[in-house]
Amino acid sequence: MDARKRKSISRSLERIATLELMLEQIEQQPTELGHLYKPPLENMLRQDRKTVSCVENDEPFLASEFTTPVEIMTAMGVHWYFHLERAFSTGGIPDSHMQEDLEAIQSMPVPMDLCTFVRLSFHYLELGVLPRPTAYISMVHPCDPISSMHAAYMHHSQWRDVPMFMPDAPYHMDRASIDYYADELRRTVDFITEHTGKTLEIERLREATEETNRCYRLWLEYHDLRRAIPAPHGPNLARACTGMVMTEGAGLREHGHLEWFEDLVADAETRVVESRPEVPDQRIRVLWFDFLPVFADEILPWMERECGAVIAMDMSGNCPFQLIDTTSEATMFRGLARRALRDPVMVRQSHSTAGEILAEMARLVRDFRIDGVIFPGHMGHKDQAANISLMRETCREAGVPFLSIGMDSFDPSYTSVDEIKNRISRFFAGAGLN
Amino acid sequence: MELGTESSAFAQMSHATQTLCNPTLQSWKGQGGKVVGYFCSFMPLELITAAGLLPFRIRGTGSTSTELADAYLSNLNCSFSKHCFNLALAGEYDWLDGLVMFNSCDALRRTYDYWVRRVDTPFVKLLHLPKKTDAPQVAFFREQLADLRTQLEREFDVEISDTRLREAIGLHNETRRLLRQLYQLRRVKVPPITGSEVLAVTVASTAMPGQEFNALLRTLLKEIESRQATKAYRARLMIIGCELDDPRYLEVIEGLGGLVVGDSLCYGSRTLWHSVDEAAEDPLGALASYYLAGRPSCPRICTQYESRDTYVMKMIRDFQVDGVILERITFCDTWAFEGYSLEHDFKDRKIPLLVLEREYNHLGEGQLRTRVQAFLESMEG
Lengths: 434, 381
Known about the structure:
Chain A is an alpha/beta fold.
């Protein structure tokens, strides 16, 4: 293997070693919820190993995005990895390079006001530590930083010669827009076939979609159980749901994803019935109206312990997903298109109109009997920051207090953890919540 | 001598650039004419013109603060969107009869969200603008325009026939042709017009009835035929970037000896370099094809960096450009990576490039002078 290839998988190999160690620790020190926390890690490990194997053995594989329907790639029998997931995973999987990466992006010739997540993701490309795929399925939504970054990917010397397809995501959700995106997905299939030789059999797509439907149905059930007071679990297991439905295997039985969802629902049910929550002494139910920062482990336990506050819902654990009608090819593509255009995390709160976002916020506040809403105000989410005034208005109408912090969800040096805790603490006190 | 003193045609255009509701617009309104605003240069003006309406490109001209808009848009949003929205909140755009927007960028789609809630413009629409230029995107864009056509007809009780569309295409193509003529004058060693003056003309073209503007431009072209350039310059520059509608920005650069001879701006060459196909059987299709795929794009179109690069390189050659300035309004994500790619490519090609951050409606003259001065010196050295 040449040096370039070796470097491209170096970070994947490091993460594999870290995941193996984490799993070993779970084995050695069993906890009550270890059976639920272990499979998502095993899933990541399996994905990383497969990606490395593809590179080592020159097998075709794709880089893809969280908006590309996994059902299509699963049904086509082609391996893929989400390269944007790397920056996110530093939240749960220790990454010894995080600090050096954050320092490196300071000197990258792109504006400092640009989303840190996007700068990190581009830095990985510059550094040559992203496995170089056979072809790449990109995305133009949910926000400008993502689409402009992908435009630069196309031109960067590292991946310039990697064929890329970028489905164009319409802004509206009328029938014509959904049909248009469904056609973009069909063109995605053609693109994959052209570059990997893999074809799509509709029966196989149906099988994969029915399997993810089963997973989503269970996630929806779990979503409902999270309405209970006290909430059966903290936010981490709900966040893991995203990973479990969006990876290879979700569409097929072999990796036990469905069983994990069944186990998750059963555990939540038991905890609700027995009033034995994962997070004890819950006094404040919080809606964290975005994804949690990668350094959430420095904040959440403090919130739970010191303030009695539980994240009853956040936008990674939110399950607005609708099941897909598998009657025909047309209904499947339309359903997959609709889902990709509105449901995934970040897409939901960024690509939507203000009306949709505010309706979502109001619904979550009502359904989850929220006591206070925290909008982290990640510096890269400029489009969401523009909604702060409307969010505040929505919360006022719903009778719940609202806090906008202003932080960098990937870099705690932007707003320190102490400052974030201080803001949250004053918010709870000021609103009379503790 | 200043061009504004020499030419009354230019003086009128320059005045239109420095104000919002300029005298020709007031006269149009006074005669019962209606005005439809738009933000983004992807808007097919011909559709508005064919409806008997006057297209006006929204600017933040004259805005000195964003205190009203700050209550809505955040400190992470660009100053262009905030100044424009501030003016709207202050009632400075009350004379608009309609507003058509695209999801051009994150800041503008959020501006739309507030505009429909907080400003009483009678007809406000948001259309989807594709981010690439393949045939399916052109077809989808055409459908968006067909919907807009129907909505304009209904709202303003007019018929936008294919004949009227063709007439409007002819009118706007004439504007483009005349503007191209103006641009060609800048290729020579001593151009008769400066970059800031050209910008004043192109901005005026978005704020006046097409026929009046064309008449003024014809006059101006005649007047400057034999004009002598007044100043020597140190370098011939090209300016690339986002929303730039203030000629004073270029005046500062040119005052230091950097003559702006070319541009890739949405108030500049990108909107006039080519024309709409007047012979097309389907005029609406011709508009969709032209606006989305038939002319130089901005980075909003994700897949066209290579063609933008080719376009810029050709202009550098044809207009004998010595150096390029890329300007970006702070917080603009659309332009965030364009500088990155250009920096790498220009370095390889040994083309001097200066990347500038700026605030809309705030020249930051001191810093601008320092940066440009240093840039010019680096080219001379």
